[in-house]
Structure formats: structure tokens, C-alpha cells
Amino acid sequence: MKTLIFSLCLCAAAVNAQTATPPVAVDAAKYPSLQAALDAVPASGGLVTIPPGNYEITQPLQVKTAETRIVGGGAATHITNKNAEGAPAFILRPPTLDADKKARLWRVQMADLRVSGNEKSGDGIFAECIEEIYFEGVSIDHHGGSGIHMVNCAEDPRVADCIITYNKKYGVDIFGGHDIVVNANHFEENQDALRCSDSFNLCMNGNNVDDHLGNGIIIENTYGSVLSGNMIEECNGTAVILDRDCYGITLSANVIAHHLKGGIDLRDACGCTLSANTFVLAHEFSVRVGKDSERNTISGNSFCNTYIGAGQDKRPAEAKTPMGTDEGTGVLVEGGVNGLSISGNTFSGLSTAGVWSTGVVKNVLVTSNLLLDCGRKLAKKSAWLVFAPKSLVLVKDNLDENSPSAP
């Protein structure tokens, strides 16, 4: 009897395999529209190839199938969103999501094409409830919304080797993701480069973030993440912001260069480490530790201006624009901070003190730092390590050329 049941199961599996529609290859050139080509993909998935050409759309292209890869011929495959009512160029979303909140699509991928918009269009690519979503080699520019906007794409979202530019909101906006990879992308002149909120395990490495109208990277209510090896330059706001209960995040080996406000702003972050970063030309602060941030470590960083040796600075002390002037700042600690270790850093050529507080702080350790040529815009003989009276601070074994005990 067992043998008979097993044989019947094998037969049923064979019948299902023969009747199920296998994944297909779809050549979009053979269809009357891009949407028709996308609709030709069965539920089992497939590969949609879009040949080089200029494709103008006025309504979002809907991707409704799992196991689907959409590939173009590089930037020569150019999809332009002409919609002026805030609609995105692409929507990647389970077709049954409105009726079934647990509906998900798995492994939707886009590669090697350009998607552009206009000031009145929406996001370049809006994706919701797609697991293991993957973007590679996509150019996304000039949208009225964000370049890539992911909502509850929880499992292993990846954005790699894309160029994301001139979008009116975020270059990449991630909500509700985990085990996220954002690597080797170029972000330029978006409002903000990237926002990652209500997520965890963001791995953001080797990106070039340049010339943003607002801020660089904003991380909110996210933990267990790493930002390393990124070049973040010339934001009109702040390079990196951690806010809304962030914890357990490492920011390491980044170059934080030329920001009108600040370098890294720990607005609400606990148990985080800032190490081996270089801060240069940050105009208001290189690091700010907000009153809601506790138990953080700032170690082994360089805080500097444009000094190039032999008593010379690369930029002038005054210029026609703030971006043209020489500047260097240190660590601003807001009153109320409890628990902070600042050790092994170099502070040099700063307009400000190396470290200063705006109010009473406690359990702050400042040790083994080097301070040279700081306080350029402070009154003469101003201290370079300054804390409000009644603060619980241990300041020890720093080499401070401004200190009365300095040799």
C-alpha cells in the first residue's frame, strides 16, 4: 500500500510539473507596449529584456509577478516618466496586497537601464512587499519623488552599482527592511541621499555621496548596522544623522568632507561607535552628540581643516561663499548626555574647541587625544576641552598644546 501511495504522489507531481507554466523569456520589442511585455510574464516568473530605445510613459509600469528580472541595454534603454500627477515610473507590488496584507512577491530584479522623471512625477521605482528585491546598474534621475522607494521589502533588499541623481526627495528611501545591502552606488544632488527607517541591519559600504541639497544619510529607528568606506561630500545639511532610537551602529572609515552644517549628528543614538573617520570642512560641528544619545564611543578619528603642511592651508580663511572657506570643527556634546568615550582622536586646525559641551554632562571620558592649532575663532587662551560646571568628566592624558601644563 505504501508503494502504491508513493507512486501516485510521483504521478501527481509529474502531472503538475507538465501543466504548470514555466518561467519565460519575454522580448519587449515583440509587444505593443512595455506594460504588455510585463503582463506576459506568468506567475512562475521570467526574464523581460528591453532593448535600447527611448520609451515614454504617462502611467506607472506595473510589475506583478515574482521570480522576475527586468533587464535593459544599459543607459541606452531609457524609460522616461511624463506623468505630471505624482505617479511613479514603476510599481513593484503583489496584485492581491490590498485584499491580503500578507501577500508577498519574491525575487524581483531590475538591471541595466535608465529611468528618468520630472519635477511633477512621483518616485522612480516604488516597491512594496517584495522580498529579496535587487537593483543593479540602474540609472535613476530627475524624479519628483525618490529614486527608489521601498516599503516593507523586508527580506534582504539590495541596491548595488546604481547611479541615483537629481531626485526631489531621497535617492533611496527604505522603510521596514532588514539585512539591507546598499553598496558601490553613486548618489548626487538628490534632496537627501538615503533614508533608512524602522529597519535593521543596514550594510552601506563603498558609496559615493556628493553634492546633496539637504542631508546625506538619515537613519531612524534602526539598529545593528554599519556604514563604512563611504565618501560623503558637500551636503548643504549634515552628512549622517542617527535619530529615533538608533542603537548598536558602527560608522567607520568614512570620509566626511565639506558640509555646511555638520558631519555626524547623533540625535538619538545609543551604543554606537564612530571610528577611523576623517572629518574635514564641517562648518558647525564634525560630531554632535545629542541629549538623547548615551553610551557612545568616538575613537581614532581625524578632525581637521585644509592644512597641507609647512604652515599652509589649502583654502582661505575667508571667501565669497561658505563652501569656499577653510574650516574645521570638533565634537559638540549637548547638555544631558550620559556616557561617552572620546579617545585616541586627532583635533587640528579647528575654528572651535576640540570638544565642548552646551550643558552639564556625566560619565564622559576624554583621554589620549592630540590637540593642535584649535580654537582659531575663539578668544585667546580659550580652552580646547570645555565642559559645563558640575559635569562628571574625566579628562586625562591628552596632548593639548594649549594646556597650561603642555611642554
What report would you give on this structure?
It holds the Pfam family Beta_helix. This protein folds into two domains: 21-190, 3 Solenoid (Pectate Lyase C-like), CATH 2.160.20.10; 220-407. It contains two helices and 45 strands. The strands form four sheets. The chain has a 39-stranded parallel β-sheet that branches. A two-stranded parallel ribbon has the order 8-11. It has a two-stranded parallel ribbon with strand order 25-29. The model is unreliable at 1-19 (pLDDT under 50).
Task: Return the domain count.
Answer: 2
- Uncertain runs: 1-19
Tally of DSSP helical segments = 2
- Structural class determined from secondary elements: mainly beta
Total beta strands: 45
Task: List the SSEs and their pairings.
Blueprint: H1 2-19, E1 24-27, H2 34-39, E2 46-49, E3 53-57, E4 61-63, E5 68-71, E6 77-81, E7 90-92, E8 105-106, E9 108-116, E10 125-128, E11 130-131, E12 134-141, E13 148-151, E14 158-160, E15 163-165, E16 170-175, E17 178-183, E18 186-188, E19 192-205, E20 208-212, E21 217-223, E22 226-228, E23 231-235, E24 238-243, E25 246-247, E26 250-252, E27 255-259, E28 262-266, E29 269-270, E30 273-275, E31 278-282, E32 285-289, E33 294-299, E34 302-304, E35 307-309, E36 312-313, E37 331-333, E38 338-343, E39 346-348, E40 355-357, E41 362-367, E42 370-372, E43 385-386, E44 392-396, E45 399-400
Parallel strand pairs: 1-2, 2-5, 3-6, 4-7, 5-9, 6-9, 7-10, 8-11, 9-12, 10-13, 12-14, 12-15, 13-16, 14-17, 15-18, 16-19, 17-19, 18-20, 19-21, 19-22, 20-23, 21-24, 22-26, 23-27, 24-28, 25-29, 26-30, 27-31, 28-32, 30-33, 31-34, 32-37, 33-38, 34-39, 37-40, 38-41, 39-42, 40-43, 41-44, 42-45
Antiparallel strand pairs: 35-36
